[in-house]
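Fill in residues.
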């Protein structure tokens, strides 16, 4: 693929910094005077930054700038590295049991984080994502009010958390075969989150995350007043071309509606 369509600068994550390995998708016939929507792409567990970049052409060659990030955790199977993940903070909620209540108050958790010499992994990840977005906005012309989080599997859990914690910074979130992360209060910023647009797409035959789980998430978010669209597909946990086509249509509808 030619460099005008995909740009993946040499980069490495360094321990103790807020940097994440990234790959950028530059639209075909990039026009520097046009403010493009930015898609922040977050891969599934065991993937990497190239996994989501490869999906971009199935959505559009021209409509978006893509910023694909690599999860900071190395995933191993039988002692062999097989890809990357986003960390233990993005596990799926148990379908049969409610998430355990926190044992300390928010104030105490904040005090401990401020007094600890070790950076909190969630804080470090958030810093890394925002830093990558800033660098992409410096390099390419991005519309500041059209920044979307697009996550698959565990990456969808990251997208949910980022969008619902910082709803004023994003135009919307796309969750593909994903879930709301455990030990996280998704409606802590309810009023601001009601301005978000959410699209949930899910495989009907997904054995890892049953579609009923996705439907419950959609119902809970809608009951809280969020604007959530949902579509299921005759597939398992893979990302399919029909899914990406519908994601493109939904994104274009969000970008062309009155801001």
């Amino acid at each position: 693929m030619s460099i005008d369509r995909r740009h993946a600068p040499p980069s490495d994550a360094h321990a103790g910094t807020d940097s994440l390995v990234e790959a950028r998708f530059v639209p075909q016939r990039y026009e520097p005077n046009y403010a493009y929507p930015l898609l922040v792409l977050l891969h599934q567990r065991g993937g990497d930054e190239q996994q989501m970049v490869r999906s971009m052409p199935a959505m559009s060659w021209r409509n978006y700038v893509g910023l694909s990030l690599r999860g900071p955790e190395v995933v191993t199977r039988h002692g062999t590295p097989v890809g990357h993940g986003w960390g233990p903070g993005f596990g799926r909620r148990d379908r049969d049991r409610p998430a355990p209540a926190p044992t300390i108050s928010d104030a105490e958790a904040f005090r401990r984080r401020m007094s600890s010499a070790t950076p909190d992994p969630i804080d470090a990840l958030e810093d890394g994502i925002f830093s990558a977005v800033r660098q992409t906005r410096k390099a390419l012309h991005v519309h500041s009010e059209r920044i979307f989080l697009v996550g698959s599997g565990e990456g969808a859990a990251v997208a949910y958390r980022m969008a619902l914690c910082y709803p004023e910074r994003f135009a919307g979130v796309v969750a593909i075969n994903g879930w709301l992360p455990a030990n996280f209060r998704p409606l802590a910023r309810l009023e601001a989150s009601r301005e978000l647009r959410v699209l949930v797409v899910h495989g009907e035959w997904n054995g890892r995350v049953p579609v009923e789980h996705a439907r419950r998430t959609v119902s809970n978010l809608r009951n809280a007043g969020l604007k959530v669209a949902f579509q299921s597909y005759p597939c398992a946990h893979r990302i399919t071309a029909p899914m990406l086509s519908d994601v493109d249509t939904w994104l274009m509808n969000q970008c062309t509606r009155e801001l």
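The radius of gyration is 18 Å.
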